[in-house]
Design a protein that fits this description.
Four copies of one chain form a homotetramer. By secondary structure, chain A is an alpha+beta fold. In chain A, 21% of the residues lie in helices and 34% in strands. Chains in contact: A-B, A-C, A-D, B-C, B-D, C-D.
Chain lengths: 154, 154, 154, 154
């Protein structure tokens, strides 16, 4: 539960707003991409998980602080780390950092394993709480033991 | 099939990009809002339609031309008019126009019935083709006769 | 600073995700639409404000709790109320409620003044902190006195 | 002008709608990511281009046909190929294909150079016309000769 997963995110036109910066709501998308890839790195694809278990992850709480803006063409490193794993939910700490311009996409090939760049500026950090629910009723369910086992090893 | 439906759309931060203007992909959202409200004006709610018929509208072709940009706080008038109604699909012509600043939200209260403002600038026009499909398999279906009847009267 | 502003928001396809419900990041859009319309109700258009003062509102912190999901075609009532007004920032409490099906768009014509519907279910509530910054440098600025005056009267 | 650029795009929750499939407007985002990375592969970053030339690419026409839907977790290969290069605009043909499940992210490391997978299903194809405009006035400009030279070599 203490390892940090990292995923690169490039800023495109779709992510920006008329302030010339990344629209703040879009960090929730960036954080979710990193969570999804973290789950995938554990062998968990959410679509298949739903078909196999009838369950679904849903976000129940988000708390974000915005420190500095990102701009078009910026390359971000988005991290995810589980800070709490309960019976029917988990909480993750997530951060978005600005990578320096010289960090090429190539350097990010092994992004999941990449260490935290010394010079990366913190743009946004978040606490995200996620519940496990029945996909049909959206009622809370206990996390399946096999899932808890996998998450505990991450 | 020849009446034009109109719906007001306000431009918010979420709609803009770092060019300072409405992100072009978002006109597809504006056009869909107008189509949804046009269907609602005919008594058709898509969620209920799906539950009752097992069918779903899906967009199969879009063609848009962008004439002038819209900006934050602009008030648009978005129109929808059926130009072709087939057995399993229909085509709509849609336009987004910029309303002059003095057109208040109040003036738009009766937006659906509003006539085309003489001074409204054309921002974007589109041809949108929509198919009727099985909600589970997404395979094309014939439009239910009751639906065709309603659409023919619009 | 104690009045509550309310604004109707309809759920469209663009707002939903494959879980069949409103994608959680989109509540930030709904809350912003309500804040923008609240400012407009005070005579403040953000584009003009920027041209006149060189300043810009930016979101610096968000904290959201998701209670129940909204679905396609649902009609929400989104509220905004200033809970703290500082020198360079303000904090708002915002809520999204589900309006009962019989609440027609017509009933919402006077939405800003509408009282809180007794039967509306709470879907999501939020605390949103907003800073006032220089539009060019994005550095924090003191809120212009005229703006503070207006906000204090809201 | 005849080479095809390819870029991988993963489908996340943010991309889907309540139909359980990718929301059709989002293919415009996928296509733009591929165009942006194609330009980057030519050494062109749009933010820097704007600062250096005062010019900006804007989309002036889009025509999309949707053949099959994509779903959560799908991995797409999005292509871009210039089909016409004029004085103040260019037209690209773009396609989104579904990669078979066994195509891992690793296989996509050299995605730009990847040949077209024999078994990839066509999901959506598009013709996108792009103009070069003055970033301040948004009026059409002639493409800078150095830019035309680069694009001709792509």
């Amino acid at each position: 539960m203490s390892q940090t997963f990292r995923w690169p995110v490039r800023v495109y036109w779709e992510d920006t707003d008329a302030g010339g910066i990344v629209f703040y709501a879009n960090y929730l998308k960036f954080f979710e991409r990193a969570r999804t890839e973290w789950l995938r790195s554990l062998g968990l694809e959410q679509q298949r998980l739903r078909e196999q278990t009838g369950g679904l992850f849903v976000v129940t709480e988000t708390a974000l602080r915005y420190h500095r803006p990102a701009r078009l063409d910026d390359l971000l490193q988005v991290s995810a780390r589980v800070t709490e794993l309960g019976r029917a939910s988990m909480t993750l700490q997530q951060k978005a950092r600005l990578l320096p311009p010289q960090a090429s996409q190539a350097d990010l090939g092994d992004a999941a394993a990449a260490s935290e760049p010394a010079v990366a500026e913190l743009l946004c950090d978040a606490s995200i709480r996620i519940g496990w629910v029945d996909a049909a009723t959206l009622r809370p369910l206990r996390l399946p033991p096999a899932l808890v086992h996998l998450l505990n090893q991450s």
